[in-house]
Specification:
Elements: H1 2-27, E1 40-43, E2 51-53, E3 56-58, H2 60-71, E4 78-80, H3 83-92, E5 96-102, E6 111-127, E7 146-149, H4 153-160, E8 169-172, H5 175-183, E9 189-193, H6 197-203, E10 211-229, H7 234-247, H8 251-257
Parallel strand pairs: 1-4, 1-5, 7-8, 7-9
Antiparallel strand pairs: 2-3, 5-10, 6-9, 6-10
Length: 261
């Protein structure tokens, strides 16, 4: 079982890298080169979509974002911050792109929405040896403590269900901090995508199978977006939306957005 997880992860990454090469060679015929020298791209660490590899940001949806930028004739280094910081930069600075952003009613008018770049199906993750934790519904959690990233829509949804910071919820700066809280026994669960588990275990050099996905939360299933700050140049926004429409036609996009990895 453990060996199979590593093999699946390796195969998935090999497939996605192959699709990237083919897709990029087919779709980048868009040649507009307007100068948007000040464009920035911000995100958070969130394997397998945003993770560090050989000193740069890589991952499934990162490949899509880079494809969109290339198709639009743009180039920008991707900056990694805790989510709350990335959100603040994107909500207060012109010509900033951010991903992966849940498109919630509260955020709808705060950004320009370029297009979906990932699909998440979030739920509860616990340590494999915590066999005492067997929830069938969020209402079954009792006094269990969940680690969530500050500013993340999943934490906001859990608060809407009546959970409170400092009691059932412990906020962290990023997903790595949330997982470290889990590993140290400071919390009972983290919120993550089932597909992320082998990548997170690899990122943290854990034995495969250290964690278990135990409860899907349908309300936290979302396509997530590449978005632009509200006060961004309108020509930039249109260029990126057009580039997204082109990238949507590629195999890599269909592969990632379907959650096939």
């Amino acid at each position: 079982m453990c060996g199979m997880q590593n093999e699946v992860s390796s195969r998935s990454w090999a497939v996605i890298q192959s699709l990237v090469i083919v897709s990029l060679s087919l779709c980048f015929t868009f040649t507009a080169h307007a100068d948007f020298a000040s464009i920035r791209v911000v995100t958070e660490l969130s394997p397998p979509h945003q993770m560090m590899k050989e000193g740069k940001v890589d991952g499934f949806s990162t490949q899509i974002v880079e494809a969109i930028l290339k198709n639009a004739g743009l180039n920008s280094r991707i900056e990694v911050y805790p989510w709350a910081r990335a959100f603040y930069i994107a909500s207060s600075t012109p010509n900033v792109l951010i991903y992966n952003m849940a498109r919630t009613p509260e955020r709808e008018n705060q950004f320009h929405w370029i297009g979906p770049v990932a699909k998440y199906s979030f739920g509860l993750v616990r340590l494999a040896d915590r066999t005492d934790l067997t929830p069938n519904h969020v209402k079954d959690l009792g006094s269990a403590v969940i680690a969530v990233q500050r500013g993340d829509f999943s934490g906001q949804w859990l608060q809407q269900q009546g959970m409170k910071e400092g009691k059932e919820l412990q906020f962290s700066a990023d997903i790595l901090e949330s997982w470290n809280l889990l590993l140290k026994g400071k919390v009972d669960y983290v919120i993550d995508d089932k597909a992320a588990l082998p990548y997170m275990e690899q990122q943290l050099t854990l034995v495969p199978g250290t964690t278990r996905f135990v409860l899907a939360i349908p309300q936290l299933e979302q396509q997530t977006y590449l978005a632009a700050s509200k006060n961004s140049d309108s020509a930039l926004v249109k260029k990126l939306q057009q580039a997204h429409r082109e990238v949507q036609k590629t195999n890599i996009y269909q592969y990632v957005i379907s959650g096939g990895f």
